[in-house]
Amino acid sequence: MRDQDGAVRAFLAGIRVGDVCGGVVAEVTRSRGAVVVLDGFPARPLGSIGSLDMPWGRRSASAVEVGRRITAEVTAVEVTAVDPDAGQVCMSLAATEQPELWAFLKGLRLGEVLSGTVASIESFGVFVALDDGPEHPVFPGVGFITVPELSWRHIDAVSDVARVGQRVTCEFLQFDTWNGEARLSLRAREPDPFQGFADAVEAGRSLRGRVTKVVPFGVFVEVADGIEGLVKAPEGAVEGVEVGDELTVVVLEVDRERRKLTLSRVRAPRAPWSSD
Q1: What's the fold here for domain 2-96?
Q2: 257 alpha carbon, distance to own chain's centre
């Protein structure tokens, strides 16, 4: 057993992310996907193709059959691609079936500026057809912008900041190997208003703002354009406060890293003749 474990480790030591491996499907299960006997190591299956890495449009264990020869790329999605301890190599058939798309996406670098046209607007984000990228076999565009990356400011709907046909210039964030797309950021091309706010405001400063949201643990108050802070319930009475109310608040903390503003509500001084 130790000899075989050593042989497995020696074989896996020569495999890297991005390598293309061939083999034969040995087993297909609903829980594990497909396991593959890799060329060069016939003793036992070491290759693994999860359901998320099956061919486009057929992402289920039934997409491959026992005995079928396959060629797949070693890839990693939130797991270790080559795991000598587990004796496993994670591979993707989607990568080898779309070589032009994968080559384009792997060639992108963090922070690279990409331009394109908004191809589709969804509630969860925006698809972008990139000027220099190939077409996507499934989605309207190779680029995708999640809602948080559309703007530094809070938006109620994606259509508030994007429309189909709009030209956009974005920064590349990461290669999403599951969806085969380039994750992009539109807001990264704009200055962060929170950092400018933090330069001008420090703890103890009194500000006037408008209530934008009331939640069980407090209220959110917009104290500058696109800058909201939280008044926690223990930090001042929030009973009876409604969206749209104007409040005077004091800055308790400005957290640059987390872009978080903590506030305290300031009560008006009580009149000496008040009977309360």
Answers
A1: OB fold (Dihydrolipoamide Acetyltransferase, E2P) (2.40.50)
A2: 18
CATH number attached to the domain at 201-265:
2.40.50.140
Residues 87-116: tens digit of each pLDDT: 888 888 888 888 899 999 989 999 999 999
Give the mean pLDDT of 256-265. Answer: 91
- Name the residue ranges covered by the structural domains of the chain: 2-96, 101-189, 201-265
201-265: same fold as 2-96? yes
* 232/215 Cα distance (integer angstroms): 9
Question: What distance in Å separates the CA atoms of residue 128 and residue 111, rounded to the nearest whole number?
Answer: 17
Q: Which fold has domain 101-189?
A: OB fold (Dihydrolipoamide Acetyltransferase, E2P) (2.40.50)
Q: Which residues contact 224 (CB under 8 A, 6 or more apart)?
A: 193, 197, 207, 209
- Which pLDDT belongs to residue 275? 44
Residues 171-199 have pLDDT tens digits of 999 998 888 899 999 999 999 999 999 99
Q: What is the pLDDT of residues 152-169, one digit of tens each?
A: 988 888 998 999 999 999
Strand 181-185 to 143-146 pairing = parallel
Which residue type sits at 4?
Answer: Q
**Per-residue H/E/C for 175-209:** EECCCCEEEEECHHHCCCHHHHHHHHCCCCCEEEE
**Full-model pTM:** 0.72
